[in-house]
Amino acid sequence: MIVIAILIIILLYGGINYWIGIRAWQGLFRYFPHAIKYRPLYWSIYILIVFSYIIGRFIQDYLSANINRFIAYLGAYWLATMFYAVLFLFLFEVIKRVNQFVQVIPAKIVRQPIFQMAFSILFIVSVSGILVYGTWNAQNPRIQHYDLQMDKSASNLKTLHVVMVSDIHLGTMNQNKLLNGLITRVKALEPDMIVFVGDTFDENVEVFVEQKMAIPLQSLRAPYGIYAVLGNHEYISNHPEEAIHYLEEAGIKVLRDETVEIAGSFKLVGRDDLNGSRFSGQKRADLITLLQDSNRQLPVIVLDHQPSHLEEPEQAGVDLQLSGHTHRGQIWPAEWITGRIFEKDWGLLEKGPFHLIVSDGYGTWGPPIRIGNHPEIVDLQIQFKP
C-alpha cells in the first residue's frame, strides 16, 4: 500500500508539473522558429528545478552546506511556484471555457500568438509578484498582543506578562538571521516568562549545532523562567532527546508531560506532542493525570503544540492553553483547510473559563513565504483575580 501511495504521489506531482511545463513552453517559445532546438535544454533545466527538493535530500551528505541550502531554497520556492501556477492555470482554463460561450474576447484574438504570449507574461509576473511579497512578508514579523482576565487568584501575583513563540523551524532554511531577529524582539518586550510551544527545530539539529544557535538563545532572560515543549518536527527527526539536550543547554527548560508550580502562583503544564507516540511508541499522559496532585485553586496554563481535542483541557479545568502548529495555512488559501481541521487555527478562543491562544508561528516550513497571514510573536498580558 505504501509503495502504491508513493507511486500515485509521484505520478500526480509529475503530471501537474508536466502540465505547467507544457503551458510555459507553448506560451513563451513555440512561436519562435529557432526555439525548437533549445527544447531539450529547456526540459532538462525544468526537470532539475522540479525535482531539486527531492534530489537534494538524496545527495545532501555529499554537498557543502551552502550548496545544500541553495538546492533546498530552489526546491522549496518551486513548490510555492507550482501551487500558484496550478491556481492561475486552472482559473485561465475556466475563463477560456466560459469565453467560448459568452465571447467576451473574440476567438480570433484568443488564437493570436501575441495574446498567448501576453497571458504567459502576465502569468509569470503575477506568480513572481506573489513569491516576492510572500518572501518579504515572511521576513517581517509582527507582535500580536492579547489581554486576558482570569477569574482565579494567583496568590500575590496580580499580572503575568508572557511571550509565546512557536514554529521557528530552525534548520537549513531558517538560520541565525531569523533567530537573532527573534531574540532582539523578545528582549525588547521584557516578559515575565517566555514559552516556546514546539517546532523550534526543523527535523534535525545539525544546523543548530553548526551555527551555534544556542549562544543567542542563552542571552534570553525572564524572571519566571523560559520553557518549551516539543512539536511534531522534533519527532520527525527521530532524535527528540537531542532537541531537548540542546534547548536545555541554551537555558530553556523542556516540559515533557510535566507540571511545575511557578512562584507559588500558577501551574504550568507542558504536554508531549500529540504525534509523539507514533515515533516513541509511548502515549502521552492525559491532563487529568498531569494535574491530579496540583493545587486546583491556582490558575493552570498548558503548553501544547497542536490545538487539537480541546474538550480535554476544557474538561480538566485548564484556564489557558497556548498552541501553534497550524501556521494558519502559511500559503493562501490553505487556511481554508486548517480552519476546517482545527476548531481554532489562529487567534483567541474563549469557552467559559477556558481560553486558547493559537499562534500562526514565527518561521516557515517548506517555502520561506507567507501569504494571507503574518509571522508573529505573541505578547500576552494576563490579569488575575485579586
From TrEMBL:
Keywords: Membrane, Transmembrane, Transmembrane helix
UniProt xrefs under Pfam families: Metallophos
Chain ranges of the Calcineurin-like phosphoesterase domain: 161-328
Molecular function GO terms recorded: hydrolase activity
TM stretches of this protein: 6-29, 41-59, 71-92, 113-136
InterPro entries linked to this entry: Calcineurin-like_PHP, Metallo-depent_PP-like, Metallophosphoesterase_sf
Record's protein name: Metallophosphoesterase
Species assigned in the record: Desulfitobacterium metallireducens DSM 15288
